[in-house]
Design goal:
Layout (H helix, E strand, L loop, with lengths): L1 H21 L9 H19 L6 E7 L5 H14 L5 E5 L7 H10 L15 H11 L7 E3 L2 E2 L4 E2 L6 E3 L5 E6 L9 H4 L5 H6 L4 H18 L4 E6 L3 H19 L10 H25 L2 E5 L5 E6 L4
Parallel strand pairs: 1-7, 1-8, 2-7, 8-9
Antiparallel strand pairs: 3-6, 4-5, 9-10
Helix pairs in contact: 1-2, 1-3, 2-3, 9-10
């Protein structure tokens, strides 16, 4: 407990400053200090104990849309850097989305729903695998990694990509479907929402997504050294949190032009493309994660459970 207290006193200011930067007048974080001290600092100690200076530690962080992955991963990064003096690089699987041009081609060749970013099959997995390989190389010097602009719904130009100038001790790889498992053919048969019933009547889209999970994404996720999972109680909560997220994006970018900010209806339709994999993760991720952070109805971490990974 002395170590926890010492860590908290040293990282408290930076963590709270970051949280304040994410708040709006209508959306304030509650129990901030409790979240940092009793949940995220213990997770940081767990990560630090797994670090091997000769090899980059690859930690996955998963959770449904709007569950707080970006906030949690940023706070973990601050703690690991400021208290444990580790070189940490965090990135989202979202940054590896295929370009609009590539998704347009995919939607023509495979299924129209693949124009919508998000589901397995809309990320450039080969690019992620190259990133994993290079970052773990003993000869690593530096590299640039893609950055995706969600408001523009396209990959940023290369001059805006992330730059990694030294080999990280830890990479936090976050994303809503990180660690997701494929379903059985029988599970795919029945549509689970109106989007599947109307736009995927033959099941071709969900079968393609599932096959991606079974093959390329499985190869990718097996390279993780640990998986943290933010578990919401149900999918409806995630929908509400995702709507909040979009409102915040609108506030931050309302004076900019040509941005693709979604309406409430668009967000709900968008979330339906995530529903099948997300609901399956409620079952699978609980079994396959190293650490489960259970979220309550108020978007706060309620309990934590440490498990062995694989």
């Amino acid at each position: 407990m002395l170590q926890i207290n010492d860590c908290f006193n040293r990282v408290k200011k930076d963590c709270l400053n970051f949280i304040s930067s994410q708040e709006t007048k209508k959306d304030r974080f509650k129990n901030k200090e409790k979240m940092i001290k009793f949940f995220l600092i213990p997770v940081s100690f767990w990560i630090s104990k797994k670090v091997n200076k000769k090899k980059t530690l690859m930690i996955g962080l998963a959770g449904g849309q709007g569950s707080g992955k970006t906030t949690i991963s940023t706070i973990l990064t601050l703690i690991l850097q400021n208290y444990f003096k580790l070189n940490v690089f965090k990135i989202s699987i979202d940054d590896f989305y295929k370009t609009r041009k590539d998704r347009k081609l995919l939607s023509k060749n495979k299924h129209s729903l693949l124009m919508t970013r998000g589901v397995p099959g809309t990320h450039d997995i080969n690019l992620i695998l190259k990133f994993f390989k290079k970052i773990k190389s003993k000869k690593f010097k530096n590299m640039k990694v893609p950055k995706f602009n969600k408001a523009m719904d396209d990959r940023c130009k290369k001059s805006l990509w992330y730059k990694i100038n030294s080999k990280p001790d830890v990479v936090i790889f976050e994303g809503w479907c990180v660690g997701a498992k494929a379903q059985t053919a029988n599970q795919l048969k029945k549509p689970i929402n109106s989007l599947e019933r109307i736009y995927d009547q033959d099941g071709k889209w969900r079968s393609h997504v599932n096959n991606q999970l079974k093959t390329k994404y499985n190869t990718l996720f097996r390279q993780l050294d640990g998986l943290l999972y933010l578990k919401a109680k149900n999918f409806n909560l995630l929908k509400n949190w995702r709507l909040k997220q979009e409102r915040k994006l609108w506030v931050q970018t309302k004076y900019k032009k040509n941005l693709k900010i979604m309406s409430k209806r668009n967000v709900i339709n968008f979330m339906q493309t995530y529903q099948r994999v997300t609901q399956q993760m409620f079952k699978d991720a609980v079994k396959n994660s190293s650490i489960i952070l259970n979220l309550n109805n108020n978007h706060q971490i309620q309990t934590i459970k440490f498990k062995r990974y694989r």
